[in-house]
Every structure is written in C-alpha cells, then in structure tokens.
Amino acid sequence: MSAIASVFIATSLDGFIARANGGLDWLDNANATVPAGEDCGYGEFMQSVDALAMGRRTYEKVRTFGPWAYGETPVIVLSRTPIVFPDEVPDCVTHSSESPEELHRRLSSEGAKKLYIDGGVTIQRFLRAGLINELVVTVIPILLGEGIPLFGPLVKDIRLTHQDTKTFDCGFVQSKYKVHSIGKD
C-alpha cells in the first residue's frame, strides 16, 4: 500500500513560508499570539506521521530552533551531498539523495502509512511528482510582499478539493485540502 504524503505548513496571507533570506521572525511573532495550550492541530498531526521528509535547508533551519523537535519520528533529510549529523541529532535522522518517487516507494514498502513532507523545495518536488495527497495550510494574517513561496511553477494545474477550514482566536485560518495530483484521482 502506498503511503499518504501530507503537508502541514504555515504561510503568510500572500503565500510565503519565509522571508527571502529564510527569516521566520514574522512567524515567531505570530506564534507569540497563540493562546497557551493551542497548537493548531500540530500535535495530533505529528502523532499520525510515520516518517518526515525535509530538504537540507529546512533541516539546517530546524537545527537553529533549539532541541530536536521531532522526537523519535524518523526524519529523512533530502540532499544531493552527504550530511554529517552532530551527536545531538537523534539516530532516527538520516540522509537520502533519492528522488521523491524513490523515497516514497521505499518508505511505503517499509510499512510507512503517512509521510510528512516539509520545506518549500521538497514540497514542490513532491507535488510535481504527483505524490502529495493532502495539504494543511495555516494562513497567518500578515503580508510579506516577497519571500520564499510555498508553491512554485507547475507543468499542469493541480486540482484541490476543500475538506475543512478552521479559524483560531489568534487570527490564523487553517484549511485542509485533498490533492488530485497529475495522473491520480
């Protein structure tokens, strides 16, 4: 059985996941407005995940946040060049230079049922490969004007079906979509 590939990410209202220099100060400021105990569904989402695939830039950014945030969830860092992981990074973090298709096929054959795909370029690569099944996008009420976009160029439109939208008292709006990928229903 093929693993479900999911995205769970925040964007500015104008669709950016980070400033042009990779800065997330705007997101940190927004998170400071979230009431104590509210995680906007992230904890429940992470409990459903069997493995996480992220790009090297996302991995490098995550490392600046402090202690490793993903516990013992297997994390695969995608990079064309090998990575030497420091001792404080858990053994469940590995490197792969596989294509999205190869990684998805391998993790599915190893029994993964749900994959978390994270990082702009990695999400775009998995989308272009027709492998993303669902998107959960939390829109933060800020306009950045420029930055790193969540979505990049596509060779063909990708149709989405809206499944749910939630609003949070802090002004965040979170929508979940089923993705009808190229060549898939």
Task: Tally the helices.
Answer: 5
* CATH homolog superfamily: Dihydrofolate Reductase, subunit A
| Shape category | globular
Name of the CATH first level: Alpha Beta
Describe the protein.
With 185 residues, this protein is an alpha/beta fold. It has a single domain, classed as 3-Layer(aba) Sandwich (Dihydrofolate Reductase, subunit A). It is 22% helix and 30% strand. The strands form two sheets. An eight-stranded mixed β-sheet has the order 5-4-3-6-1-7-10-9. The two termini are 16 Å apart. GO terms for molecular function: 5-amino-6-(5-phosphoribosylamino)uracil reductase activity. It comes from Rhodopirellula europaea SH398. This is Dihydrofolate reductase.
List the helices and strands and how they pair.
Elements: E1 4-12, E2 16-18, H1 25-31, H2 42-47, E3 51-55, H3 56-63, E4 75-78, E5 93-96, H4 100-109, E6 114-118, H5 120-128, E7 134-140, E8 148-149, E9 159-167, E10 173-180
Parallel strand pairs: 1-6, 1-7, 3-4, 3-6, 4-5
Antiparallel strand pairs: 2-8, 7-10, 9-10
GO molecular function: 5-amino-6-(5-phosphoribosylamino)uracil reductase activity
Protein name: Dihydrofolate reductase
Organism: Rhodopirellula europaea SH398
Short description:
It is built from five helices and ten strands, in the order ββααβαββαβαββββ. The protein has helices at 25-31, 42-47, 56-63, 100-109, 120-128; strands at residues 4-12, 16-18, 51-55, 75-78, 93-96, 114-118, 134-140, 148-149, 159-167, 173-180.
